[in-house]
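Fold it.
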Amino acid sequence: MRIRQARLDDLDRIVEIELENFSVWEAIPRSVFEAHLRKIQTSFLVAEDEGRVIGYVEGPVGPQRYLQDQSFTEDIEDHSYLPGGYISVTCLSIAKEAQALGVGKKLLTALKEIALENKREGINLTCHDYLIAYYEKHGFVNEGLSQSTFAGETWYDMVWEANTLRKSNSNHVSVALPYSSTACG
């Protein structure tokens, strides 16, 4: 398995995986993914196995501690050219045939590495209550109910602080960078 930066030619497969996992109301539209592929410079990653995309994680860099609903639109602003800020995950999705194989963990680990390399303050996302434990297992902290109204659902703000890894060598993330051709281990 290889983690790499997403490309425009991954769009069809990304949309296919999105529709496998999310309701019509929660699924990010194709036009939004296309805009994100064109605008997000560092934090739109795919997991690829034998040349086939099996999962992705994506979202822009922004100054806010919590994910903003505007991140789910075509009009996103990616502040990856600025220092600091948070990577705001708008979607982490794994193909049905690759679920429970650790693909999500590898994508989140690679995203954390990007956050550290680019000196981000951390990563934020929103999730349903039944996913809180999953993200906590990966170092995110539940900071309570979100103000997000995306898809008319109830969301929880989850934040991973980059300094939690900077302070502890024993927990340092070691992965192949997404631009590398080596497998993520």
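Strands lie at 2-5, 44-49, 52-58, 61-62, 86-89, 91-94, 122-127, 141-145, 156-161.
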